[in-house]
Amino acid sequence: MTIFFLIRHGEPQWDINEKYKLKGHGRDLVPLTPNGIQQVYEASKDDRLKKAQIILSSPYTRALQTAAILSKQLNIEVQVEFDLREWQPDLSFQFDTLEQLKELGDDFDKHKGIYPEGETRLWESSLMMKTRIESVMNRYLNFEYVIIAGHGMIFRTQYQIDEIPHAYIIELKKKKL
């Protein structure tokens, strides 16, 4: 049995996106706010995390910064896993405004993350996200305790919760295959 500690990144500094007019995945380069940094330092004090043997991280800045703080505080190595990236609202990588992001997110929510029969959408489906994160977790079932620094939407494919607060820890048990 492996216990995964899914930790959503700290609060990100989203206003950078508008300031620099970032587009597509450029919007995922934002760092944590000072409050977000503090959130992660507080989360790092959780005694459960002291058992962890490795930290896995999404490649996005906000998750990497979260993983770096956890690594520093817990003295655990970080492994970046590309498939831990956040939900992709636009698989064409072209969205560039908050309005477009909201429209894509609203459509995702309207359809509960499932493409309508016979249709596709720009956004990544829940099943696509679930498959990605599970493939990563399955590669680490040889560990007893694993921290994953990542994102709310992808974690919601593993744990039924509507909104995951920043730096929140979800404990998830997974049996070896």
From TrEMBL:
Q: Which SMART domains match?
A: PGAM (SM00855)
What SUPFAM superfamilies does the database record attribute to this sequence? Phosphoglycerate mutase-like (SSF53254)
Going by the entry's taxonomy, the superkingdom of the source organism is recorded as: Bacteria
Classification via CDD domains: HP_PGM_like (cd07067)
Pfam families in alphabetical order: His_Phos_1
Q: What is this protein called?
A: Histidine phosphatase family protein
